[in-house]
Amino acid sequence: MIKRVSYNPKIDTGAVVQQIEPTASLPYFTIEDGSFRYPMNDRTRVYGLGEQVRGINKRGWIYRSYCTDEPFHTEDKSSLYGAHNFILIDDGAVRFGAFFDYPTRITFDIGYTDPAMLTVTPETMELELYIIEGDTPTEIVRRFRSLIGRSYIPPLWAFGYGQSRWGYADRDDIRSVADSYRDAHIPMDMIYLDIDYLDNFKDFTVSPERFDRFPSFVSEMKERGLRLIPIIDAAVKREEGYRVYDEGHARGYFCKGRDGEDYIVGVWPGMSVLPDFLNDDAAAWFGSQYRTLTEMGIEGFWNDMNEPALFYSEQGLKEAFAALHTYEDTELNAFTCFRARETLNRLANSDDDYQSFYHRTPAGSIRHSEVHNLYGYRMTKSAADALKECRPGQRSLLFSRASYIGMHRYAGIWTGDNHSWWSHILLLLRQLPSMNMCGFLYTGCDLGGFNGNCTRDLQLRWMSLGVFTPLMRNHAAAGTRSQEAVAFGDTEAFRHIIELRYRLIPYLYSEYMKATLRDEMLFRPLVFDYPDDSRAVEIEDQLMLGSSLMIAPVYVQNADGRMVYLPEPMTMVRMHEDYISTEELSSGDHYIPVPLGDVVFFIRSGALMPLADAAMTTAEIDLDSIVLLGTGRAYELYADDGISPDISEKNITILRQHDAAPRPAF
Ligand code: MIG
User: What are the tens digits of pLDDT across the range 230-248?
Assistant: First the structure.
């Protein structure tokens, strides 16, 4: 059962696809001082909130949905790039989900102020609240997911491995990345282009010096089995004579300041304007610009800086310089010195700016700060809508940094600027099920860490988790140590791990498509599958993956293995170099040795999983090579052409152990 309580929101966020008649009474919560309150007992667990800091059970902290370009994903933060306002409350006796469909800042105090109180505080009461009931967390999530609509369907090739780095400066850099992987016999499907490919950071341009004759470069790479995936930033450079700016400006498609003029912000290209993605015409116009690149052979994109991230605004900068002048020739003491320094730091992503520009929405002019969390969503929807037109009959790869629930129907997300820290392996693990609850299935993080310097062991361990995430991409910030699979000397261990990824793709693709068709989670906390197991409740460093697997990655430096809890007897699968071996284990606790470079995972009792031969690209994966591992009898393999937009249960074939397997083709 889903109940909707409506508090007359200003605009339709577009999160929900089902029509639900509003009910008058509010179940479970009481309202006090503009907050929704729910008393928690000792056993209450709270899940959800998607891309956030901290654990799978969110209890014991205060979280804020406010799309933020946050470069430090530490546990003292409250907001990252996404705004995913779904929580699932389970206290044993009472179980329900709550989705606060609200386009701007909303706070979830989950036992932070009062350990026994859950308090949800939106800025204003103008929201839709959906209460989702069900007997189990799995059922509640399924109902919620049917409320918000089917998740984005990536092409098969998007399950391949991708190499990225901010700082690949020109065609030769990209060629040498491709060559180095080929020479080391490491599979790969994609190379990403960061802002370096742009002409002066201008969207929908390609540097004529560094990437001239781009279309022929795109096809050269495609002949090698590699797709180039360029980045698109939200802001557009203000430069007369730059077609995208001129068109958008003439048609009034950029966000306006109080004076009715284009609001000027500073981002990568310098002084820039913000496309008004909440205006349908402006959004359609921006989306149509992607055609410039699809016509050059591009089939996928990543959308960045769409919180929107602002370095400064023209106005803010003026004020800051004026303020700094007042300190000139004065003797700075501790306080004034810090204040002076803060004057510049405060310029980025400032609330003053978010309150100073406006969108022309179907519901009239709305101040950005009132719809902040929809900006990245609408940018990415504009791209998805346009890609459907530009590339008819074909899926595209698309993922975004900022997001709101609803965007999951159009694209995936990556988890932004993490660090080369061991703790961020675990952070990804914990974000995965939470993002899945909110509909985001195509996800992954910058493997090896974005900021900071990676080490060989960190990258190997991180990739050993990355082989399981739909988006498997190695990405790093400019100026950091190289962390490609070929960057640490001995490449063999990396080759084995990335080859394992390609061997797993029939499983990952099948589970992804089934989860999409059936509104299920790909990654689940153990307690969702073993609700009566009191140990499973506490486990936050292992996950269920799809119908057959459990994963338990190593995330501690210098560890040679780890403790793993098996809620039931399982088949342990070990990849050691090129060899796959299996071993039956009893339920309970086991110390599992996992030498660096080995990958270990577990198959549930009575389940099977397909494993194919390794391949150099997704196009070369041979389903005829599939072997079935595990103790089950049958496996539902999903296989289609990997490109057509429509997916269907009809594409499922049952593979049986000991039968001659049917041979569908990708
Ligand atoms: O201000 O395009 O999260 O992946 O490499 C940094 C440069 C802008 C942030 C993205 C990151 C990307 C970087 N971008």
Answer: 999 999 999 999 999 999 9
Q: How far is the C-alpha of 448 from the C-alpha of 399, rounded, in Å?
A: 19
Pick from 69, 229, 310, 417 the residue to mutate for probing ligand 1's pocket: most ligand atoms within 8 Å of its CB.
417
CA–CA separation, 493 vs 485, rounded Å? 9
Give the pLDDT band of residue 329 (cuts 50, 70, 90). confident
Q: How buried is residue 452: exposed, middle or buried, by Cβ count under 10 Å (0-12/13-18/19+)?
A: middle
CB atoms within 10 A of CB 127: 24
Question: Among 68, 80, 166, 267, which residue has the most ligand 1 atoms within 8 Å of its CB, making it the best to mutate?
Answer: 166
With a 6 Å cutoff on the Cβ, whether 370 touches ligand 1 is: no
Ligand 1 atom showing the smallest separation from residue 309 Cα: 1
d(CA 344, CA 347): 5
640 lines ligand 1 (CB under 6 A): no
Taking the CA atoms of 51, 54, 58 and 63 in sequence, report the sign of the dihedral they define. negative
Q: Is the pLDDT of residue 660 over 50?
A: no
Please tell me which residue, 657 or 254, carries the higher pLDDT value: 254
Q: What is the dihedral of CA 372, 376, 379, 382, to 10 degrees?
A: -100
Q: Is the Cβ atom of 628 under 6 angstroms away from ligand 1?
A: no
The backbone torsions φ and ψ at residue 114, rounded to the nearest 5 degrees and listed phi first, read -125, 115
Is the CB of 525 inside a 6 Å radius of any atom of ligand 1?
no
Question: Which atom in ligand 1 lies closest to the alpha carbon of residue 477?
Answer: 5
Q: Is 402 close to ligand 1, i.e. is its CB under 6 Å away?
A: no
Q: What is the pTM of this model?
A: 0.97
- 135 CA → ligand 1 middle, Å: 42
Q: Which amino acid is located at 247 in the chain? A: E
- Ligand 1: does its nearest atom lie under 6 Å from the Cβ of 195? yes
The residue that leads in pLDDT, 456 or 657, is 456
Is the pLDDT confidence value at 665 over 50?
no
Indicate the burial class of 649 (C-beta count within 10 angstroms; 0-12, 13-18, 19 or more).
exposed
pLDDT at 32: 97
pLDDT at 276: 98
pLDDT interval class at 659 (50, 70, 90): low
**Comparing C-alpha atoms, which of 191, 160, 159 is closest to residue 176?**
191
Distance 185 CA to ligand 1 centre (A): 29
- Nearest 5°: CA angle at 130, between 125 and 132? 150
The number of the ligand 1 atom at minimal distance from the alpha carbon of 416 is 3
Q: Is the CB of 166 under 6 A from ligand 1?
A: yes
d(CA 450, CA 570): 35
C-alpha 650, offset from chain centre: 28
Measured in Å, residue 197 CA sits from the centre of ligand 1 at 13
Ranges of beta strands (E only) in 217-317 are: 227-233, 236-237, 256-257, 265-267, 270-273, 300-304, 312-313
In whole angstroms, what separates CA 56 from the centre of its chain?
A: 16
CA atoms of 310 and 305, how far apart (whole Å): 8
Phi then psi for residue 420, to 5 deg, are -75, 65
Q: What atom in ligand 1 is closest to the CA of residue 450? A: 4
Q: Hey, which of 191, 194, 196, 268 would you mutate to test ligand 1's pocket, going by the most ligand atoms within 8 Å of its Cβ? A: 194
User: pLDDT tens digits for 582-637?
Assistant: 999 999 999 999 999 999 999 999 999 999 999 999 999 999 999 999 999 999 99
